[in-house]
Each structure stands twice: as structure tokens, then as C-alpha cells.
Sequence to fold (432 residues):
Amino acid sequence: MSDVQITKQEFEEIKQEAKDILIEFRNEIENARSLLDND
Amino acid sequence: MDKFFGKIEEPREKIIPHEDMSAFVEDISPRLLDASQSINDIKKLEDVSFEGKSTEYIKKVKSAIVSSKKATGKLMKLTLTRLLPLYIAYIGAGHVMQKEDGKFSEKDRARKELEEKGITSEQASTYKLGINDLIYRGITPIGYPQKQDNVFYTENTYWRSLIPNLVMGRENYGVIGKDKNNVQKIINPDIIPNSEDAWLMYLGLPQKNHTFGISSYQPKDSKQDMYYYKINMWTDLLERFISYEMENIEVYIKRLNNLYQGDNNKMLEHAEIKMPHHQFEQFKIILEKGKEGFKNDKFLDLIKKIDQSGCTINAMGMFNNMEYDTDIETLLNNYTISLGEDEKGSYLSYYDKWDLDVSTEESGKGFGRAFEIYDRVYYNPKTGEIINDLLSK
Fold:
């Protein structure tokens, strides 16, 4: 009961997707902050 | 076989070891929380004034607005369709071994922890870095979640509002409720300070509004050796409850006092004609027994009512008739008030268990930890006077 039931492939896909999206989002935040600083 | 039934997954292939899942959740949660807390910076771009700005800067800002909206959309979709189901499965599977309940003899230690850190070590043992912060930020602690087959059902209000709450902030987007004037408004954390504290403590985070203390008492018939939490303002609230009707009458008495220069008989004659019967009866008590006497009589009325109901009442809504807002009624959703007696004297007690009524609470492995609230107010059964010197002990 202590394990989550999804396939290993699905799990790896989610990990990669989450990593990519969070990096993209982080870049957007940094870009926004830099533009706000120059305002 | 495959040609009849299609591809059959081997169950073993579908199991992700708990350690792997735990490592992922622990890694992703703080980053997701950070993203959620940074989202306001993106929103600020829409308020940038273009006056006197270069064409290049304007172009960059407009482009950033478009691309950041796209990135926000992706983040929302990821959280909703991928991470949320994983979190729910992970939470349901259990990830934290919580401490046992604190013993009654440990109440001084718990009290010190609560004063110094805003949380007891028992409640803090449910905390998981990032995850609980994320749940706190994402969920408004109002009402009870629906459950199906003893698991959180993703269609309930709590979870449905989690993603917009994370993206927009609970202060901007939350559960819509009605205030006492029946006007719809967002239930943000400022409106419900006591419920917020309960939610924080449940998740193992420090309370912010000094709502809870540790009781010096435990129920007489308690089967468990444990300490209980108390609500710091409950006795004040009770005192206000038994005296709030007096506020309007006091203004009236003052006016008549000026008019008739303290002549009680003339004041009574005047009030009998002008006041509704119920109010006139209260007016008479205040005039005869003073403010304290009025309060004590009211308190004895309450005691009588509880006594007639078998010494225990469901006190939900008890404070609702007061003319001021109180979050305590929201916090104590369905609590009981009882009468009792011990060597110190007669007392009135209140009890509630703050939980979400989900199976993981019982196994002690959920993302939160239920806690029990119990305290006593001692009183003189003859006069109805609340004995305050016992309250501080």
C-alpha cells in the first residue's frame, strides 16, 4: 500500500515534464523581474 | 491471450517504490511552491505603464506577457492533470510517521512549544517540507470535503480550488462565502484567522493568530492519556455571549438615568410603556441586580438549558446570534458543551475534534494530523459567577 501505482515510463515522463515546465516557468519569472526592474 | 484482451500490464511494472516517489515529491514541492509564490511578479507585468518607454521595451513586455501566460497555463495543466493525481495517491499511501499523542503530563512542555514556536512537536511531526506548505497555500479551510470510498474526491471544493489558489493566491481567489449581510465575498485568510490557525496546526505549521493554547484539563471520562488544546478566546466569547443583550439596554438606562435623575421607579414606569416585554424584563434585572447580576442570571439560564438537555448539548451556532462576527463558530464546526463537577467545583466544558474526517488521519499517515480541543470554565452554581482565577491555571 505504500507504493504509487503508475508505470515506470509514465513516472519518468511526469518527472521530465515537471522539470521542463518548472524551468520554463522559472525563466519567465526571471525575465518578468528583470523587465520590472528596468521599468 | 493478448490478442483477445489487448495488452495486459504486469502489475509489478506499475508499482513505483515509495522512496522514489517520496524523493520526487520532496524535490518538486518546494519548487512548485516557489513558482506559486512568484506568480505575482508575472501579473505585475500587466500593470506596467508604457508612457515614455522605448518601443523595444514595450515589445519585450508584451512578448513576456504572452509567453508567461503560456508558461502559467502549462504549469496549471501539469499540476492539475499530472501532479495532483500523483499527490493524492501518494498522500493516500502514507508518507509520514507521526508522533504519538502527547501525554497529559506533558502539557507544560506542549504549552511552552506552542508559545515559543506556535506549534507543538506532536502537530509538527506531520509536516513535510514543501508539501504541506503547498496544501496550505492551495486550500481554504472552510467546510468539509466530500469523500468517496474513504479517499479525497477530486471534484470536491477543496481540491477543485487548489490550482487556481496556487496560481492566483488564496487572498485573491478563494471559496466564495456570504457575510452576515448576505453579501458574497471571497473568504480570504484575514476573514477567518481562527480557522486559519486550525488549518495551519493540522498541517504541522505554526499558528499565526494565537488561537490555541493547551488546556489544563482533560475530559473526566477520557480513555486516553493525552493533553488537549483550548481556544484562548473562548471564555471571553462566552462572557460576551451572556452579556451582549445588555449593550443596547445599557444605553437606554443611561438616557433614562439622565432624564429621571436616577429615580428607579420613574425609569421603570417609562420603560414598561416604551420597551418590548422581553427587553423590559432584562431592563428590570439590570436595574435591580446591576450588570454582573444580569450576566450571572444569563449564565445560569444557559446552565439550566444544558442541564435540561441531559448535561450535554451540540453547541453549533451558539454564538451566531451575536451582532459581531466570530470565526470561532466556523472553527468549531460541530462541537459539544457539557456540564460537570469535580473537587474544584462546577464547570462547563467544550469539546471538538478538528479533523477532515479522512481515513489517513486514523492511520496516522496522512498529510495532516487531527487534534482535540477541550477546556473548562468553572463557575459558582448558586450565583452564576464565572470563576476567573481558575481559568489561568
User: Anything to note?
Assistant: Residues 154 and 160 of chain B are 7 Å apart (CA to CA). The longest strand of chain B covers residues 345-354.
